[in-house]
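Researcher: Next sequence.
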Amino acid sequence: MADPAKTPLGKMLLDEINPVVMVLDTPLVEETCRKNGLSFVEMLSPFCVFNNIDGEGFEMAKFETVGFDSVAVPVRTASDQPYRLQKFRLRLFYASDIRQPNLEVARERLKQVITQAGENGDSELCSDPPPIENLDARFESENLPSWFAFFNKELVRSASFSDHEAFDHPVACLLVVSSKDEQPINQFVDLFNTNKLPSLLNDGAMDPKILNYYLLVHDNQDGTTDKATKILTEMRSTFGSDCQLLCINSSEDGPVEHQDNPWVRYKSETSSGQNLGSFLNVNDINEMRDIMQELSTKQIIPCMEQKIRVLNQQVSATRKGFKNQIKSLWWRKGKDEIADSSNGSMYTFSSVESQIRVLGDYAFMLRDYELALSNYRLISTDYKLDKAWKRYAGVQEMMGLSYFLLDQSRKEAEYCLENAFTTYLKIGPSGQQNATRCGLWWVEMLKTRYQFREAASVYFRICGEEPLHSAVMLEQASYCYLLSTPPMLHKYGFHLVLSGERYKKSDQIKHAIRTYKNAISVYKEATWSHIKDHIYFNIGQWYAYLGRYDLAVSHVLEVLACSHQSKTSQDIFLRQFLQIVQKTGRIFEVPKLQLPEIKISSLRVIFEDHRTYATPAVASVKESIWRSLEEDLIPSLSTGRTNWLELHSKLVAKTYKESNVCVAGEAVRVDFEIKNPLQIPISVSSVSLICELAASSDETQTDANSQAGKLQNDNELTMTTSRESDNNSFLTLSKVDFSLGGGEVVMVQLTVTPRIEGILQIVGVRWNLSSAVVGFHNFESNPRRKKSAKGRQRGNRSLSDNLKFVVIKSLPKLEGFIQPLPTSTYAGDVRHLVLELRNQSECTVKNLKLKVSHPRFLNVGSQESLDADFPACLEKRTEHHYVQPDHNNISQPVFIFPEDTIITAETPLLWPLWFRAAVPGNISLYLTIYYEIEDSSSSMRYRTLRMHHNVQVLPSLGISFQVSPCPSKLEEFLVQMDVVNRTSTKSFQVHQLASVGEQWEISLLEPVDTILPSQCLVAGQSLSCFFMLKNQRKSGISENKTSSTSVPLGSVVRLGPEGSTEPLFDTSSSPLVDFHRNERLHQEISHQGDSTVDFILISRSLKSDLDSGTSDPPQLFSHHSCHCRQVPVPKLKI
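Model: Next structure:
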């Protein structure tokens, strides 16, 4: 360890344990000194500190602002060994101040120290705490708040002038009289004999026979020194040579301004404009320095040395040695039964114990620590046997300090200080101040040895019941935990919180804020959410108390989204926050407001470039589905292509080539989830997007065939930022208002519609919380890596890039509707629908194409059937004119509208569609309509309209056929048809059964009336019918080879009541024949060589099932069973 005297504790001891000089002066002396704004003690204090006092000769040093001089005087131990005093200081006190401090006054002074420190630290209130990673656990204690040292010194001084310690007892008395006083000699005599002497002298606690030094003060402004010189001569003839004359206020040129004023540090209350020592020139300063130097080196130090020698001889003769020790023990043997005495009031200055204590303290003040320690040890046992606990604790305290300064036995030093500290506490309130002083010295000793963890525990033990005192000790303990190796960060933060709570109880709000803000660095990223909420909420409240509402709002904002708190706490936080905002009288704008919570992971951007959507829900369909559907629609891209993508790359600068494309006048939609993390409801209003639109200059609107390089140099932009749609004609923003219940999550859909061409950037979202706070949240995210087809990384594309759009000029956009497409129906249901396409633009579209994802469910009809009466249009005509369907056209995946088909703004396009619910289940139908733009100057040559519909298909009739050869006739077959109604409520009427194929003729074996008298199948009912199927292949009709998907003509049998005149439906014409062809594709089997037959069962809903009060169309159902084969007849074994 370094020299103990140079450690913080060593410096403190050199400052605090020094000889005391009692000052007795007259009022005229004080009046003379007050001309300089100083008292007499304050005027001499800068000259009471000396360096390097020894006996090797001396050289006078230049005067410094702090009054340090180099002097030389023989300093010797009790054994007459010379040594050097590196630093020596006198402490001057008026006689009236030599008394134990009043505790209430001391507390008030300490409170003023702390309050002043808080006022000086206003700048820290606005600064952010350092991050936890920047807290250096090895910084020196000097970097701690500077007022800690001053506060600790004041605490030490609050235990001064006790009767059980001699280092606070005056070693000399300085009697001061003015040359203007009447009868100065009598004044000197009266000063020492008045009742102004301290109680320590009157009560017998100290020896009244102390050194007296007489000083005559002359004010040079009152005239020459002739009178003062005569008085000095008379003084020396009366009192001896210990008399001096001090002339002050010698400035002849008016007030003197001292550049480095030595009195500032000794003046407790100094106004900024006050010039201390304004009438003291250099001669006055040198004279004061010389007088104090003479008093120290020629009077006080020799006097103390002489007393040490005398006392040491007496103690050696009476107490040291084996014989004297036995005598002392024998004499004290009968005192074991006496009652405890906390302070040992039976001791006077003349008692042996008091003399030994004086010897130890004098030796300590003259830095002879070996002699001091030996005497402390000697007296310690006596006090313990006498049960004088306060004196015993005081001796143990000095023993610990002596061990420390001698750098001997660390364990003994710690033991003595801990023993003293514990003993002081046992005494009770009378020992509390001494315990605090002992604890502070103990702490400094531990910190010097880098035992910061142990020092923190001592600080905690020093904490008393007084909140302000406890707050300072806890804060100092927290820094000890930070200085530990390794740093104990959680204890550091926790003790800061404890300290802040006590500062608040003491009305030290600024200090409470400071400690809590320092604790933020510990708990900001920690999982201890409750203590973090406590810190932020209280800081916010305290800032509001100080009127710093902006800082109050920013801190309370941190606890608004406290989902882990109870409902009551959440309500308190939110209510307090709104009250603070209300006090400001304005609306706060808060970036990254946490209430409500914006779930960025749910964010989806929906926009229309060449791809447009019939409804917003269509945009949620996977892009892969549309791509596979549109492969046959979009023209193939050749090497020399000039499509809209190439055009886009030419029109836009390189910076924006990776951007998305949207069309002016068409909305870009942003969907994201908003969650209320609280258990209480909140009100959210005016939710809208934050967008920036950079309007392109006219130079960029050149012809599309211009070279890309030229256009890229003409991309000057004019920024137009939209934060309120009402104030900007270039953007239209949607706004929504809603309330969120506790824990509720809602999907918010917001749109922005650019009105001009340029670059659109969607920055974020804004909203109003309870009409008091405007929240902002930027859509920021980490870049996402996209991979090319070969798996190589293609670069980073951030969320902000996905929210950047190149806005091109307005284009025509089709709107599509299908009426009346049901959302729920039964299997086999056949309906006539109409596709309606509207164009709201003045520009015409042409070359339309349509592709359906499920032709089994949806077929495109002919224009002639648009106004057909359904289902009458499907009835079989009396004169049968069979028209062979155009198989090539129907089998194509893409339906091409007639070449002359165009859609203008005036007239919508209506086109018939046929729907059939082929199989039960939840069916998703996807339609894509391709159309080209007639205007050749458009940035896009074509666009697509995507449509999506979900249909729930419920089970209806289940049919099965079994074909068996007739035993009697080779070309005839027996057919068994089983029908089951699988619905729970619906009834069906079977209408007809058709066999598909020219070679087949089907007939009933028995009337349906006998099988199904009620003429309908109710829910759950089944039916079995038998038919005769004849193969007329050999009847002369030519046989034509057909594919598996062709549908030749067949025969039909009526299943209604006998004699019914209801018309039959033509299963060999569109759309039934088209749906049957698709069924053959889906039901196709691998046994192509076998002879098969197809059946089509037509049924209708029972009329009683339809509500007469509704306009529901009549329902027709077709059920298809394809590729039915004969069941072989088993051969009989003979």
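Model: The radius of gyration is 54 Å. The CA atoms of residues 732 and 753 lie 5 Å apart.
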